[in-house]
Amino acid sequence: MNGDTKALVTLQGKPMIAHIEQHLRAAGVERWIVSTNTDNDQPIKQVIDEGSDTVVDTQQAIGPLGGLSSCFQWLHTQMPDCLIYTCPCDTPFICAEVVHQLVTRMFEDQYDCVIAQAHSRLHPTIGVWRSELGNVLNDYLENQKNYRLMKWIDTLHYATCDFSYLPEKTFANINSPTDLLNNQ
After folding, report:
1. Signal sequence span per UniProt (predicted)?
2. Disulfide: which of 3, 29, 123, 146 matches 116 by Cβ 3.0-4.6 Å?
């Protein structure tokens, strides 16, 4: 996005991270953390609610696995034994129903994680995870050089939750200035 921090890019009058925060609140999430790949998290802290936190990716340049690993580490000390819901900041049209359905599916079995699927496409960055997967992920990162999120998920006991009944736009990523312009 022209070098801008995606979370802070304005969409429909507010930063994209504020759209995510809105759906988290609607889902009843009381506390949330933002994983960032920059040490300068002050601008994000100014946008998110008090009581929310930011964590800096401890492993840079490995994509979503870096953010997930940092969140697991933070949760291990702050909120052990909880479920983690993940959603990229560039999917501002996600809705509270996604959180509810992923959590519901998680309790149908002893899954390690449940990820979203919609319109014949997996969305592995949108999911619910057991917090105790932190050590499993750390072991994987130490022994593998493939940092694709789905590669790691394939090693877990996971399920998908189909959201094809929701509009495709629900899972749309805002990755470029053109995407941003088309969604204003």
Report:
1. none
2. 123
Q: What domains are defined for the chain?
A: 6-182 (3.90.550.10)
State how far the Cα of 129 lies from the Cα of 6, in Å rounded to an integer: 24
Q: What is the pLDDT of residues 62-117, one digit of tens each?
A: 989 999 999 999 988 888 888 899 999 899 999 999 999 999 999 999 999 999 99
The distance of Cα 10 from the centroid of its chain, to the nearest Å, equals 19
Kindly compute the dihedral angle of the four CA atoms of residues 81, 148, 174, 48, in this order, to the nearest 10 degrees: 30
The residue assigned the tokens 């149908």 is 108
Residue 47: both structure tokens together: 């946008």
Cα dihedral sign for 7, 72, 78, 110?
positive
Please tell me the pTM assigned to this model.
0.90
Helices (H), the chain: 16-26, 42-47, 64-78, 96-106, 134-143, 149-153, 177-182
User: Strand 14-15 vs strand 10-11: parallel, antiparallel, or unpaired?
Assistant: antiparallel
pLDDT of 40 above 90: no
Residue 122 pairs in a beta bridge with: 117
Sign of the torsion formed by the C-alpha atoms of 22, 26, 31 and 36: negative
Angstrom distance (rounded) from CA 148 to CA 153? 9
In total, the chain counts a number of residues equal to 184
Mean residue pLDDT across the chain: 89
